[in-house]
Amino acid sequence: MPKLKIAVRTGVGVDRVDLVSATDRGVSIAITPGANTNAVAEGALAMMLTLSKKLSPLTELVRNNQWTSRDGIVPGDLEGSTLGLVGFGRIGSRVAQLAQAFGMRVLAFDPVADVPENLRAESMDALLSESNILSVHVPLNEKTRNLISKREIELMPQGSIIINVARGGVVNLDAAHEALNSGKLSGLGLDSFDPEPAVFHECFNHPNVVLTPHVMGLSQRARQQTFAAAAQAIKDFFNQTGSVEIVNQPRGEN
């Protein structure tokens, strides 16, 4: 494609884009921030509710005619729980708004983004130690790979829940599976995997794990907004009008 000038990544993650080659060939890579923010945030809340309310095991209980066993499965509450956000960009901040509507206490840690003082955790360890539910909203890179692993999980309260609707590889699945089996974690929600399509991991069979195939940002409304934003980015790029989010600096003409 010798005449290619711009390519648009629907969404914001560019971990699967060869930025080096694009830059060398003079191809601008644009993203569409904000178009699916609410969809992803709602997905995170859906997983929190599913896991805290124990919807999957309770569904199986009714399905298997085990009504009298219901006292052995006690639903939890979002209200009064502490939500820890790792990353406070567009999606993380929207999750905070939704969680507060449920009466949750929200804390956030992000060394880059501006976190309001009333939500700011002093450190990652401080955040982990208070998080009944931990929701991850960071990109995947060398610094964030296995960011949540055995050490981090051990700092969390007993029976905590981890949600990852960001990028696979940020949460170490071996460590999470071990914690699920020990009861340290009571739930794990995953919408992203490394690699994708997901390669089977033994934690996938755990009854307190919720899995979706990286679709939380692909709701009907989000799809419309995302592709409209991509088309607008291309138009603005060639017309040199509007604000186009370019993530690289092409070196020369292609």
Automatic annotation (TrEMBL):
PROSITE patterns found in the cross-reference section: D_2_HYDROXYACID_DH_2 (PS00670), D_2_HYDROXYACID_DH_3 (PS00671)
Domain D-isomer specific 2-hydroxyacid dehydrogenase catalytic: 1-247
Domain D-isomer specific 2-hydroxyacid dehydrogenase NAD-binding: 45-215
Molecular functions (GO terms): NAD binding; oxidoreductase activity, acting on the CH-OH group of donors, NAD or NADP as acceptor
Oxidoreductase as UniProt keyword: yes
Assigned keywords, A-Z: NAD, Oxidoreductase
Pfam families registered for this protein in UniProt: 2-Hacid_dh, 2-Hacid_dh_C
Keyword Oxidoreductase attributed: yes
Family as reported in the entry's similarity comment: Belongs to the D-isomer specific 2-hydroxyacid dehydrogenase family.
Protein name according to UniProt: Unannotated protein
Organism: freshwater metagenome
